[in-house]
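Q: How would the structure tokens look for this protein?
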Amino acid sequence: MSLVKNISCSLVRPYFKKLPLVRFIITILLLVTNFPVVAMKQPAQEYQLKAVFLFNFTQFVDWPPSSFDTDQSPVVIGVLGDNPFGSYLDEIVSGESIKGHPVVVRYYKNVEDVQGCHILFVALTEITNRKKAIETLKGKDILTVSDAVHFAAEGGMITFFIANNKIKFQINLESARASKMVFSSKLLRLAEIYKPG
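A: Here is the predicted structure in token form.
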């Protein structure tokens, strides 16, 4: 079993269930500080970490009440395009809830099908398709995330990227502030802020 799987499944997850802040801090330490990408032997392991990160975003972003039909409506993490996570994202959110909202995963082939979604990982390889998705979702309270190069420049909100053999993330504040979502200062302190030009 790989180091990543050992950490995420056998050591980290029991504490994740009980301590959301610990869960977030451990994830940040794995992804941002000293966890080298070269230790990931398979691309799938990189996406296991990104799946944990997507789940943690649910705890450090607040959505307006209008984003939920009822007090019991789910927090939806969506994947648009080809799914790079396998079953891991479903496993991560299984049985989880945020402020009384169960967390679920939904998969979309077309941006027009995206409804009731709160976090959307955009896995579209074509630039034109990504730009169309970002434009279609503009004004909706959906946190758009991707690891596509220049995603922030295209108007996406959060971009995963690799620097010095580490996974990091960048936030486009202009896009984020155009929504009614509120980003935790903890999240902003850990992010690289995208600056146009």
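The chain has one domain: 3-193.

Confidence is low (pLDDT under 50) at residues 1-19, 33-43.

Upvote if useful.
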